[in-house]
Amino acid sequence: MSEKNIKSNEELENKKEEKNTINSIKHLDLTIYNELDDFASEVMDGDKFIKYIGARREYLFKAEETIKKYLGEEFLNEKEGHERIETFSDFYYQYMIKYSDCYLYEFMAKGYTDGFRELLQKKGIDPDSLNVNWENIRSKELEYDESLVDILYSIINYDLEHRGYSIFGINMGYESTLYFIVPQKTFSRIDNEPELFTIFDIGFLETIYNEIYEVAGNLGAENVRIGDFLEKRGNEYYTLFADASKNVIIENIDENDESKVKIIL
User: Fold this and answer.
1) pTM for this structure?
2) Is 178 exposed, middle or buried (0-12, 13-18, 19+ CB in 10 A)?
3) Judging by beta carbons within 10 Å of its beta carbon (0-12, 13-18, 19+), is residue 112 exposed, middle or buried?
4) Domain of life of the organism in this record (predicted)?
5) N or C: which end of the chain has fewer CB within 10 A?
């Protein structure tokens, strides 16, 4: 068989494979991914969104080549600590991490104080212009449980709301959250009950926590300092240290006395 015939047969097989792929795609219900496209259009600027649409189309026809092109070969074989991409949702999540202006927070990880600062800087917002005691939060990362991430988020959100911005996170079932900052009018267009991911915002946190307070004055309790945080549970106030042996319960706090405590969430 000549080289020409080999090439002709290869071209024929490639065309058959492409036709089969197109036919199989026609039978897929791609409407469920419309919300992913809609979300991307809200958190990416025009050029980045157009690039994403191109990548999505490429993925539908040649998934492995597209993964290698946009994310790297390591996502095909679980190399260097990267999980293998098996679905479009996997691809979408990793694509957003790499190409959108977001902050990836991995559950139980530290360094989130600087992570949120970097996200603000990406959006052209000076972190030091916010009413956030960054050093206080940073110094507590090792001492506090994971609720400190949500406390910091709440403080940032309160300040950004007065500037016309919203900060929120999404979770797609992975052990992490992607945080974004967008204008409030943009956030109002985002579906707050999507099928493929969960929105983390103040409303969501209010379903998890009772009231959170920051200690502003001497409460006369051991291990509780100014700048610490307390969660109200029933009529009692609990510290949030990672080491359970250090946690204390406080009663009879005057919530209206801002010289003692101020509400955060």
Assistant:
1) 0.86
2) buried
3) buried
4) Bacteria
5) N
